[in-house]
Amino acid sequence: MSFRFTLLATDGAARLGEFQTPHGRVHTPAFMPVGTQGSVKATLHRDVEAAGAEIILGNTYHLFLRPGDELIARRGGLHAFIGWQRPILTDSGGFQVFSLSERRVIREDGAEFQSHIDGARHLLTPERATDIQARLGSDVAMVFDECLAYPATHDAARASMERSVRWARRCRERLQTLRSTHVPEVTVTNPGQAQFGIVQGGVFQDLRSESADATVAIGFEGYAIGGLAVGEPAGQMYEITAATVQRLPENQPRYLMGVGTPEDLVESVSRGVDMFDCVMPTRNARNGQLFTSEGRVNIKNARYAEDDRPLDPRCGCYTCRHHSRAYLRHLFMAGEMSAAALNTLHNLTFYLDLMRSIRDAIAFRTFDNFRQEFLRSVTRLPLDS
RNA sequence: GGGGAGGUGGCGGAGCGGUCAAUCGCAGCAGACUGUAAAUCUGCCGCCCAUGUGGCUACGGAGGUUCGAACCCUCCCCUCCCCA
Predict the structure, then answer these.
(1) Cβ of residue A34 near strand B, that is under 7 Å?
(2) DSSP code at position A229
(3) Contacts with A330 (C-beta within 8 Å, 6 or more apart), sequence order
(4) Phi and psi of A97, rounded to 5°?
(5) Alpha carbons A109 and A262: distance in angstroms, whole number
(6) How do residues A317-326 score in pLDDT, each as one tens digit?
(7) A11, A47, A91, A264: which one is catalytic?
(8) Interface ipTM above 0.95
């Protein structure tokens, strides 16, 4: 098995580590830029890599619909197809159970989606999601789960969580089958692919605990915490994360799915999380919101119209080295594509620099100091309230 | 000189007797965005009080008809098109 996680150091609950995949190593705590359709939007792989990304995300649902996982398998898998040779993690489509809730019906065997592209109906099951990811050949595949909407009753959260556990078991069994026997219709393009389980349970600690125990009992190469950051208060998210992490194996990576804001990352690392992904740096960049060492900047604001300063004087990214706030605002207001490109490059750099600083702080065992200082700098300006 | 069309909020452009401070688009101002249906979405957008079933001034200008006019009539001013 090619996937291996190594815990290198700890500082409080924060962990410094790394994991090995068939496509290379990833240092943790890690932030994984989201490249849903095989591309981190508004960027080139070259720049994503240069910004410090060691792993990116792809999405089972989107790539299955277009261009199709079999087409990608015929190209040699997702890495070869998109020309990214570093690690890739694929989400299973579980999040689309949540985000496409109006276009989908959940049944015990899986979820039937109505394609957002052409309206055609497709059934995604644990087995199919596993097969698709096997064809894509990502380095880490996620189990197909149900990301429950918030708020939900305890009963609904339990039913959903228990189904996610049953689905996780089916995903694992399918992967074991693909690993041990030749399945003619499934071209496995990355034999060293790892698979992560996902803890669910809404905002209920008892359900989270049950889910964690059941998922760990199935046995995966890593464990994710899913179904958070869907509308619950941040404090509640941190509590659930902290409690859930304690039930996960120490020698395996923990991945908090879909999180989050810069503060979320720092707070979650301090509670023992190793991996993150979030559309926030990329999506918000395209929408004009930029993360800086002095808080968030909405580059659309009129007050930047004649601001000749760099976006973030403490940032070394291409955008900050070459352009003024005034120019970035102009590009955005004019609808130039370069605005999305420059903004995305900056936000990704900010996030990846933050992760590097976090790792350094853990290595030097000064993480709590770093955290306090970071949160203070962040609350100085209207960042997130 | 003759004939025709028209002048509405920053721009374009609806409205053609009351329910119009005036549809809509753009521009502008602000906000949101957390495993991407997102280069998206939401709010505001005459002036003032700035909370509302508030107050004020408004649809080229000046008069007039009417209980009531952006919408009808008269005159004036100004654009654009066609023919000379």
Answers:
(1) yes
(2) S
(3) A305
(4) -60, -30
(5) 37
(6) 999 999 999 9
(7) A91
(8) no
